[in-house]
Amino acid sequence: MLAAWILRDFATPILHKIPWIVPPGTSADLDSYFGQQAVYRVSMGNFLFFGLMSLAMLGVKTRGDKRDLYLHHGNPLLKFGLWLLFTALPFLFPTPVLDAYAWMARFGSGVFLVIQMIILLDFVQCWNDSWVAAGEEDERWLYGLMGLTVGAYAGTLTLAGLMYAWFKPPGAGSCSLNVALVTLALLLVVGCSALSLAPLARQGSIFPSACISLYVAYLCFSALQSEPRDYACNGLAHRLTATSGSTLALGMLVTLLSVVYAAFRAGSNTALFTLEGSEDGDAAGQRQALLEAGEGTSAGLDGAPDAAEATRDAVTGATPPPKPDAPSAPVSYNYAFFHLIFALASMYLAMLMTGWGSQAQEKDRIDVGWASVCVKTGAQWATGLLYMWTLVAPALFPDREFS
User: Fold this and answer.
1) 30-56 helix and 76-88 helix, angle to the nearest 10 degrees
2) Predicted confidence pLDDT, tens digits, the chain (403 residues)
3) What is the CB neighbour count within 10 angstroms for residue 201?
4) How far is the C-alpha of 98 from the C-alpha of 232, rounded, in Å?
5) The pTM is what?
6) CA-to-CA distance for 395 and 200, rounded, in angstroms?
7) CB 334 within 8 A of CB 245
8) Can you tell me the distance from the alpha carbon of 173 to that of 117, in angstroms, rounded to the nearest whole number?
9) CA nearest 387: which of 118, 145, 116?
10) Which region is the signal sequence (predicted)?
11) What is the rounded distance in angstroms from the CA atom of residue 9 to the CA atom of residue 59?
12) DSSP codes of every residue in 250-284
């Protein structure tokens, strides 16, 4: 990410001297074109690196697999060298190859966005279930849940008020597009909240609805913020003209770190995603035992098993699950999927840096342009509708297990 950022903003004089990186015409904005090419090439290098790592990790099921020991968890210097090689390799490719990759990255970025939505929905639902279960013994957890719910809805309404104030500035005309986007986002919030309380939603709860409502409002705000700076109705951009470059850079860094967090969380979430068929009962039980014990802990890894456990197993004839670092222990998440998520995140990075391929961004800015506005608006509605589907699906398909 840092390499793409630096090359996009400062490497134009160097890229201009590479003969096979040819601008599409004499009228092209050379700074914009070469900045876009730099981002695509760094992104493609990361995609190739993580994509090949994903292929190399296919079929790894136990910690004793040599690919786990020597490639996934080992040899960091070797992997860093391979990453440098793959980052430099696309700078040798002709422009048509990068153009084809850019179109492929649009699709891959959409997949990454959908995965982000699923991760968010799973996170807030698990949070709600955990605190409700804890509230059965201590009602303070329920009060905390209620306070967070009120806070989330308060944040949603506050964001809505700020959007009406900032994106319909005085003297800019009706700004009907911005007003419509904010109003429709509020209607989506009302729809999600009302459906979660309806009898049809058997597993509905107001706290997940509040979190989704706040996220929908944030996506709407982010979409309006992505409008071009010269658009009269983007009052926030006019307010930020005097903002220091360090503040803009900090906002960009926060955005990029959120992509890293989403990639880590999605890549290691075995409960939601997998590349291969379902496990048999023994493998699933061993995996669950390892997850409950906590992979990577030092307890019992270096010495003999606990005497009480050994005596109990000898009497009952039970076979204990393998220790987390034992060669026969199953891996705690899907390594191939982990690297695939980072390959998709590399594509998403290219779209953020170039306004979804529409233009290169100004220095210290990402994800600006009408294409970004459309993508974020679509993500907002996809998130709301996906959440509504999770509420009505158990009633529509009573024979399926949704727990």
Assistant:
1) 140
2) 888 888 888 877 787 778 877 776 655 567 777 888 888 999 999 999 999 999 999 888 888 888 888 888 888 999 999 999 999 999 989 888 988 998 899 888 888 888 888 888 888 888 998 999 998 888 899 999 999 999 999 999 999 999 998 888 887 777 899 999 999 999 999 999 999 998 888 777 899 999 999 999 998 998 888 888 778 888 777 666 544 455 556 656 766 777 777 777 777 765 666 544 444 445 455 555 544 544 443 333 333 444 444 444 544 455 555 565 667 788 888 888 889 888 998 998 888 888 887 655 556 566 677 888 888 899 899 999 999 998 998 888 888 876 6
3) 19
4) 34
5) 0.75
6) 6
7) no
8) 35
9) 118
10) none
11) 41
12) HHHHHHHHHHHHHHHHHHT-TTT--SSPPPPHHHH
Tokens for 149, please give them. Answer: 């719910």
Distance separating alpha carbons of residues 112 and 258, to the nearest angstrom: 13
Q: Exposed (0-12), middle (13-18) or buried (19+): which is 274, by Cβ within 10 Å?
A: middle
Amino acid at the residue 187: L
Q: At how many degrees (to 10) do helices 370-396 and 95-135 cross?
A: 40
Q: Do residues 287 and 330 lie in contact, with contact meaning Cβ atoms separated by under 8 Å?
A: yes
Residue 194 token pair: 């009302």
